[in-house]
Amino acid sequence: MTVTSSGSATVTLPTDEQILITREFDAPKQLVYKAWTTPELVKRWWHANRGEVKSAEIDLRVGGMWRYVSLTADGLEFGFHGEYREIVPNERIVSTEVYEGIPDAEEHAALNTLTLTEVDGRTTLTVLVEHPTKIGRDAHINSGMEGGMQDALDLLEQVAISLR
């Protein structure tokens, strides 16, 4: 089932617990990876034009943690964090993702698998988001995540291109 066809990324729901995001970038995979994994570059795209990223901490190693804190234009602060489980530079990152704004947040952690593949200097990014439950997956989808994700990935492409 396809959730959208409006943005530059495609969002599908392969199973009751999964969200699959796919988007092509006009940049080589090493630049997309660098923009995804460098704190000062993450601050340039992760806000999705909805405020600013106050903090982007990345300890890019297996067992290392990441944490992003954003401030919306209307003053709301929200944070996400996770742990890196697998890293293949320029190709694959597996990490958890916890939204800090819900009760028992750690119990609802998603497992994200980012994959980058390149053909002729263009990169296809896929992120498979696996939630522990369908309720968690549906809450994620219904949170408005898609609009923000579309805008963030558009900005990510701009940042990656700027690194050429």
Structure summary:
The chain contains four helices and eight strands. With 164 residues, the chain is α+β, with helices and mostly antiparallel strands. It has a single domain (10-162), classed as START domain (Alpha-D-Glucose-1,6-Bisphosphate, Chain A, domain 4), CATH 3.30.530.
Description of the molecule:
- The protein is of the alpha+beta class.
- It has helices at residues 29-37, 39-45, 134-142, 145-162, and strands at residues 10-12, 18-25, 51-58, 65-72, 77-88, 92-99, 110-119, 122-130.
- It has an 8-stranded antiparallel β-sheet.
- Helix 1 (29-37) packs across helix 4 and helix 2 crosses helix 4.
- It is globular, with a radius of gyration of 15 Å.
- It starts with 9 loop residues before the first strand and ends with a helix.
- Residues 1-6 have low confidence and may be disordered.
